[in-house]
Amino acid sequence: MALMPVADAYAAVLKGADALPEELVPLEEAHHRTLARDLPSLRTQPPAAMSAMDGYAVRAADAVLGARLKVIGEVAAGRPLEGALAAGEAARIFTGGVVPDGADAVVIQEDTARDGDLVTINEAIELGKNIRKAGIDFREGDMLLKGGARLTDRDLSLAASMNHPKLPVRRRPKVAILATGDELVMPGETLAPGQIVYSNGFALRALVRSEGAEAIDLGVAHDTLESTTAGISRARDQGVDVLITTGGASVGDHDVVKRALELEGTDMAFWQIALRPGKPMMHGRLGAMRVLGLPGNPVSSYICAYLFLVPLIRALSGRAMVDHHFETATLGHELAANDKRQDYLRARLTTDSSGMSTAVAVGHQDSSLVANLSSANALIIRPPFAAPAAKGSPCTVLRLPG
């Protein structure tokens, strides 16, 4: 069976991955959600000319050095002055106060001297000084937040200032993770001979949540058709958008995931791709539910999820930016020629004071070595049949989360 190229597998996973429906949520619940559409401001900010300093609102023409002006009132934030300034008049004003009609500058209090209802100007002022004009920040109708953006904490502050108590966002994708393997036990449990600690799910669920999706733990299925199909059924019953399986995707007698998926009616798009680590990855559709069958080895499982699941979550979330951002770095050592599979080498990426990045592969690249994965912060990408690469030559890298 020919191995599917990585680019073809990527296209198959994202094919038809349209954004999920829109829902309206309170601002407090919108952090890291994806905005469903462009959002206009419902108000002008500031709505009127405001003082940027504590001092005196004046007519600039009156505020010459040594001028004595009559103070006719006081302006605080939220308490505008009734009436307008006439020639020779001033109003005590505080930061955020509405500049009275007739005033066109604010003299800071350090440049004045107050004597009863008179204020002396000790520093001449320019027209418009210390005034924030109406709409200097934004105006009603301005499209300040764009659909497809993942909302940051600063975006929530802006949305609140725009007078939006709720925001239209895309529904979070529901991603369920089903592990398979008789050999798996949970962290902290006593291991019998031949058993291993289950670790994949903890990284995968964290990765899913970091992309803004809902992570559902379906536990560990035994290496039987009955147990595996029961897990698949639980995912369908919960209306899952994406089912992730880990393990059981290879060709051994105890690798039953592919058979279970096909018996349940999954339309398989591919099985086995020209990727290292991660050759036995598979993908299909079971009704509306998308299925990604990941290898059981922790490194293969994580890298396949990062390469394929993360963009899928972004697409379903309606994100404007779906694809990963690849960079160019310098190799810190030589690399041998590559074979027919596209290679993703765990690496450490460092940047010097000049901004040049250097990538060095971390030790042994066996797909079961979790410590090497944890110590890496990037992947060096080697195309199929790549020629030997010398130290100092350019390479393509993909940064890992965090």
How would you sum up the global shape?
elongated
Instruction: Based on the coordinates given, report the CATH architecture of the largest domain.
Output: 3-Layer(aba) Sandwich
Structural class: alpha/beta
Q: How is the biggest beta sheet arranged? A: 6 strands, mixed
- Strand percentage: 25-35%
Average pLDDT reading: 95
CATH class of the largest domain: Alpha Beta
Number of structural units classed as domains: 4
Low-confidence regions = none
Return Rg in Å: 31 Å
CATH superfamily of the largest domain: MoaB/Mog-like domain
Number of helices: 7
Percent of residues in helices comes to 10-25%
Q: Report, as a whole number of angstroms, the end-to-end distance.
A: 37 Å
Strand order across the largest sheet: 7-4-6-5-9-8
Quick recap:
This protein has 402 residues and is an alpha/beta fold.
Describe the protein in words.
It is a single chain. With 402 residues, the chain is of the alpha/beta class. It has 4 domains: 6-20 and 171-316, MoaB/Mog-like domain (Molybdenum Cofactor Biosythetic Enzyme, Chain A, 3-Layer(aba) Sandwich), CATH 3.40.980; 29-43 and 141-170, Molybdopterin biosynthesis moea protein, domain 2 (Alpha-Beta Complex); 50-132, Molybdopterin biosynthesis moeA protein, domain 3, CATH 2.170.190; 326-399, Beta Barrel (Beta-clip). It has 7 helices and 26 strands. The strands form 7 sheets. Strands 7-4-6-5-9-8 form a 6-stranded mixed β-sheet, with no helix packed on it. A 6-stranded mixed β-sheet has the order 16-13-17-21-20-18, with helices on both faces. α3 (200-210) runs parallel beside α6 and α4 (225-237) packs across α5. The chain is elongated and about 90 Å long. The mean pLDDT is 95.
